[in-house]
Amino acid sequence: MAYPTVSAPYGFLPVNRIDGMPYAGAIQQLPVTSGQAIYYGDTVKVVAGGTISRSGATTTGTIVGVFVGCQYVNAQGQTVQAQYVPASGVTNPIAYVVVDPSAAFKVAVTTTGSTTTVTGANATIVGCNVAQTAWAAGSNLTGDSISAIVLPANAAGDTTTLPFRVIAVVPETAYVSSGVTYYPEVIVKINNPQYTALTGTTYTA
User: Fold this and answer.
1) What's the confidence (pLDDT) of residue 54?
2) Domain of 161, in residue numbers
């Protein structure tokens, strides 16, 4: 039995760079699009106007980086730092976003057709391109995302439009079933991140 058990998705957690260097905590601070609830570990994108929105990328889509907290002014007029930004009741929300195109993220693996059921991938997932689960609200208690990546179907994983590439497995939570080692967590990098992609946002005069 794996220890600790990965019982649910938790979003994308920055752990290091794809060259093996440690993640130094660098972020970019960007304003949040009005009415957007975003949770720690959600993927985000820059939209026209220069604000941050949830990316919505599943099998295709734009991702600038991963949301790792925020600050905003609450109803009492206090500036607070928080794990997630609510969709309403706050003003001047500023997102903290990991935008390093070389950043690597730990993430849970889910079964096809489920956004919450964690499963295991064998080691052949390394090198595969993978989809992201559809966005759903995270926890208002912890502020954490429930985003994850989707286990590829057999003989799949080479589609060039998929938003993530698996670059390693996480051995600490591996388990063995019928003599095969499975990994419920993997390390991924963003394919074609927004800041290095050729397509930009539109300018509004």
Assistant:
1) 96
2) 102-194
